[in-house]
Amino acid sequence: MEHQQLIDEARKARERAYAPYSNFLVGAAVQTHDGKIFHGCNVENASYGLCNCAERTALFSAMAAGYRPGQFKTLAVIGKTDGPIAPCGACRQVMIELGSPTLEVVLSNLDGKVEVTSAGALLPGAFYLEPDGSPNA
């Protein structure tokens, strides 16, 4: 799947976001290595600590469907920002752990500005466990 197609899937997910407090709608779409697409949107709660970001929602949806760490190819994220959207630190950590440092990440805004990077580039020096359970250090 081309980057623009995955961004379009993330845009669809953004339309389902629940953000009554911030009105900041974010959508994400993750593609697995076998081509399946999972969507995610941000979901807010009056207790802000209970909110969930679009990136994590997409990855957790894939995990709930039976996919496991390392089975993800590309994650696209879109939001209404001046430049390509920037994931929060918690999402960056989840991307590393579930997707690996080589997970391709496509960041976009509603105006079509796009940045293609990797989970490892977004969180250099990250701590995570290798598939055998040993620390990456």
Task: Explain the overall architecture.
This protein is α+β, with helices and mostly antiparallel strands. The chain has four helices and five strands. The chain has one domain: Cytidine Deaminase, domain 2 (3-Layer(aba) Sandwich), CATH 3.40.140. It has helices spanning 3-14, 54-64, 89-99, 119-122, and strands at 26-32, 37-41, 72-79, 104-109, 114-118. β1 (26-32) and β2 (37-41) form a beta hairpin. The protein is globular, with a radius of gyration of 14 Å.
What is the topology?
Layout: H1 3-14, E1 26-32, E2 37-41, H2 54-64, E3 72-79, H3 89-99, E4 104-109, E5 114-118, H4 119-122
Parallel strand pairs: 3-4
Antiparallel strand pairs: 1-2, 1-3, 4-5
Features:
137 residues; 5 strands; single chain; Cytidine Deaminase, domain 2; alpha+beta; 5-stranded mixed β-sheet; 4 helices
> What's the Cα radius of gyration?
14 Å
The gross shape turns out to be globular
| Unreliable runs | none
Summarize the biggest pleated sheet.
Answer: 5 strands, mixed
Mean pLDDT: 96
Instruction: Identify the CATH class.
Output: Alpha Beta
Spatial arrangement of strands, main beta sheet: 2-1-3-4-5
Query: What name does the CATH topology carry?
Result: Cytidine Deaminase, domain 2
CATH architect. name: 3-Layer(aba) Sandwich
Could you name the CATH homologous superfamily? Cytidine Deaminase, domain 2
Estimate the helix proportion, in percent.
Answer: 25-40%
Head-to-tail CA distance between termini: 33 Å
Number of strands: 5
> Secondary-structure element order, as H and E?
HEEHEHEEH
Count of discrete structural domains: 1
Number of helices: 4
- Helix vs. strand class: alpha+beta
Strand content: 15-25%
